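Hello K.,

You asked for the raw outputs rather than the summary table, so here they are, unedited. I folded two proteins back to back in the same session to keep the settings identical. This is the first:
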Amino acid sequence: MEYIRQVVGVDKLATIFDIPKVFRNRKAEVIILFSGELSEEAPKANKRPIGFAKGEEVPDSFFEPLPEEELQLWGM
């Protein structure tokens, strides 16, 4: 397996990632593992149409909050 390993200042990584303040002004070890190659081919188009129940509309009630009883059943 090929990889790159380098120690860099966290401030450099802050331009790429959201680094918590507690880790700022420190050094970090960065290991990048290569998992595959990018293909220049476009992905194959899906032969099936997207969606179901053609012509049906989502009712406004779909977007209303769930009742408290339903939330409890889901453990929320």
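The second followed immediately with the same parameters:
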Amino acid sequence: MTAAIAVGILVAAGVFLILRPSLIRVAFGFILLSHAVNLLLMAAGGLGRRDAPIVGPNGPAAPADPLPQAFVLTAIVISFGTTVYLLGLARAHRRGDRHDDAGSRS
């Protein structure tokens, strides 16, 4: 229940920031949405089964499921790349690099 509430709050704050006009706020909104997706993936994998990956207190018969952890790791890498790209766009916009490469510059 706590994970669902946290995902809902993160999604609401992320959508609110994405709808703001500033590009930095849009980048922060995407960061919050990516955190919400990571938490959602971990919750979907079962939060109660986060024991040791190989041998836990129940013995080798009940290891933790590594698939949600792999999904979250992939999502972290993708969200990091998206964040870097959005912050690069914000920096280029702030510097004033608004030239169209396909158009003429005369």
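Residues 6 and 48 are 16 Å apart (CA to CA).

Happy to rerun anything if the numbers look odd on your end.

Regards,
P.
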